[in-house]
Structures are given as structure tokens and as C-alpha cells.
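[Q] Does anyone have a clean C-alpha cell version of this?
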Amino acid sequence: MVYIILLFLGLMFGSFVNALVWRLHMQASRKQKVESKKSNNLKSSDLSIIKGRSMCPGCKHELSAKDLVPVFSWLTLGGRCRYCKKPISWQYPLVELFTAFLFVFSFFFWPLEWNTYGVINFVVWLIIIVGFMSLIIYDLKWMLLPNRIVFPLIVISVLLAVFNILSNESLSNLYQTVMSVAVAGGIFYLLFVISGGKWIGGGDVKLGLLIGLILGDPYLAFLVLFIASLLGTLYILPGILLKRVNPRSRIPFGPFLIMATIIVQLFGLSLVEWYKSMLYLEV
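[A] Here you go.
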């Protein structure tokens, strides 16, 4: 029953992610005065995250309830808008399905006990997943990690970190969290300063700070950096071999950091213990 509920919630929040990303981008475009004629006709209230009604990204026609059923509506419509018949991107069902998968996957492999402490951390983690999915899509499409997503996640993560520190009643947890932020955010900040923003963007620095808060452990923060770099390398190498990627190509690093964080959040402690055992270190 829990899996079905999480699957349903994941699909619904995946649909929210698609709407959120599009509205944030449209709002930013309006401010920069680069929107199309059709978006010029939209009111600010139409693009409101809270008050705005769902609409087709192409013709801007308001969608009815039967058009908004995650995945199912896309399938029954043959991947096209009911009103203008223009294709609807595969992004929409894929984001809905992947968000649902992460909800269920996180529950199945959740590393904490299912007491009050573990449940609160899990609920907040689901909120973070929604934010992470939004950042992944935005960064892939527009090479940007918007503050309007990152900053709320930082606030939520700070509150969770305070809760966890108080729950454990130990200053060592405070020290671990500070060191985790220093590792995840500090390394990126140094790279940003040294390269003048050429190697890494300011959004990645803020994302590093967020990741450090979420993990609360410097070892796990290092592990995220390693796994993210590995994932990035595995992605770039085929492009280099096929000559589709060159030294001047811009590659968004945010999605790799986020996927690495999800892996480490669920399996990080086990991976660290395994690594220590391989080196015959005390676990």
C-alpha cells in the first residue's frame, strides 16, 4: 500500500516539476524581455506557480482535468496537445515516471530506521527530490540552477540539519555538518574563484552548499564529488570519441552532482564502510 501511495505521489509531483520548471523559465524570460509573441499575451497571474492554471506550452490553451492525469493523459493523446495537435515532449511522462521511481526507490532503500526521526528525514527527503528533479531539468535545458529553487532547498536543509543536530544532542553532529558544507561547497567555491567562473558556475557552488547540508558528513561529501566526477566522465567520454564534445563544450554538472547525492544519501554509509574494509581500516 505504501508503494502505491508513493508511486501516485511521485507521478503527481513529477507533473508539478514539469509545470514548475516551465513557469520559472517563462517568468525569467519575461523579465529579460526575450519571450515570444504568445508568451507576451500571458498575464503574470497565468505564470504564477500557485495561482496559474496548467496550459499547453505550445498554444497556451488552458488544460482540463482529463489532460492532467500523469503519463496516462500523454499516452491517450498520443503525445500531442488535444487542442493544437502539436507534439508534447517526452520530457513530461519521463519526469513523472522517474520522480515516482525515486520516491519508491528511496523508500525501499531508506538507510534510517522507521522511527519519528527517520520518518521526518524521509518526508523532507521526498521534498528535496522534487527540488532536485526541477534543478536537473532546468540545468539540462537552460544550463542554469535557478536561485528560486536552490534557496528554498537550502532553507529546508538548514532546518533539517538543525532538527538532526538537536535530535542527536551532540556537538559532533554540528561539526560534521559544518565540515560537510566546507567540503562540498568550499571545493567548488575555490574552483570558481581560481577559474574566474570558467570551470564551474556559481549555481554549482550553491548546489555544493546544499548537498553538504543534506549529507551532514564530510566523508559522504567527498564521495559525492567522486561519484559525480565519475558519472560526468562516463557521459563525456563517448562524446569525445564520437567527436560530439570538445574542450569548449559546455556540460551541465548539476545533474551529475544531484544523481551522485541521491546515490550517496541512500547507499553512502555502506559504500564508506566497504571502502574502509577494503583498506583494512577500522569501521
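[Q] Thanks! Anything notable?
[A] DSSP finds ten helices and no strands in the chain.
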